[in-house]
Predict the structure.
Amino acid sequence: MVKIVVPGVWASNGQTVFEVAPGPLPHLIKTFVADHPAYGRRLLGRDGEPASYVNICVDEDLVPRLSRPATVVDDHSTVTIIPPMAGG
Amino acid sequence: MTSIVADEVLIPGGDFLQGSPESMLDLLERADQPFLRSWFADETPQVARRVAPYRIDRCPVTVGQFAEFVRQTGHRTEAEERGYGLVYGADGWGEQPGACWHSPAGPQWPIDDYLDHPVVHVSYGDVNAYAAWAGKRLPTEVEWELAARGLDFRIWPWGDTWDPARANTTELHAGAFTSYAQWQQWWAAECDRFGPCPRSTPVGQFSPHGDSPSGCADMAGNVYEWTATPSSLYDRSSDCDPTVRLALDRYRVIRGGSWMNLRFQVRCTERMHGDPSGWSTFAHGFRCARDA
């Protein structure tokens, strides 16, 4: 499985780490939102795709926005969501 | 240009401790606020800094000042180039078509008497372009904090006692909130009544009672402010949120909080981190500095 980590400030019940099946990055994000709809407004744009202004790291590497569609996330990886304003 | 130069404060510099003592985090942990201690870990431990003399704008750059920059240079902001700006609506952040520095909520919600408000929807690139045109630069993070609180630690620019009448925060508009849910409810109602228009105030409106010891205005609230400093921890071993850790070395430090925040997010030592790759919102602005 792939771990998805969201900012602590987003967590409504303290949970910040989730699991989804490995696969293409956009599909993985959309699957996560389908499982946890409360995150949809934070992660998806009006077109239903991952919002361009939200940054996504796979393990330690920031995935360039244009490379997202071709990025496949392997089993045991960690996907970290970094909002454009972090912390605070 | 004359007015831009005149409204500066000379900070003589000196040696001081940047950041919060652990006692500040103790206070936050005891306070009726929703965040865990680790959320504030990036502002500790305090670190010794020596700061050279510098000048810093007394107030954030206004819409009127930015308009003059655009008139003289033809600059188009990154939000204008993209065709949308990020606006926080009733359902959270969204891409608002046409929202930019002169139409912060989008063209369907014109705002009157806006020229003396802080300019927003300015990216890191936009603010550096403005600063270069003005013969200035962005303040570093340490310069920003020193201008906000002076050499001695204090929680807010005016002192250690919270007063909602001294700064433009949500508490000025809506009273004391202690949870995100309360904030969401207030903002959804505001959007229904007035549209998603930023609740910024004219720069300097809270002077002198809200000013810092050096005389700088709007350093708590009104708009978030970019600094030039790449995000990093004061101590790499600090136990901070993993999403913040991955922003380090990639983002730039943002200071001051905004009208969107409650009292503890507008403290002098509060740190946020912003993506410098073109992102901007209807609550983010800046002020300039220059060497003395």
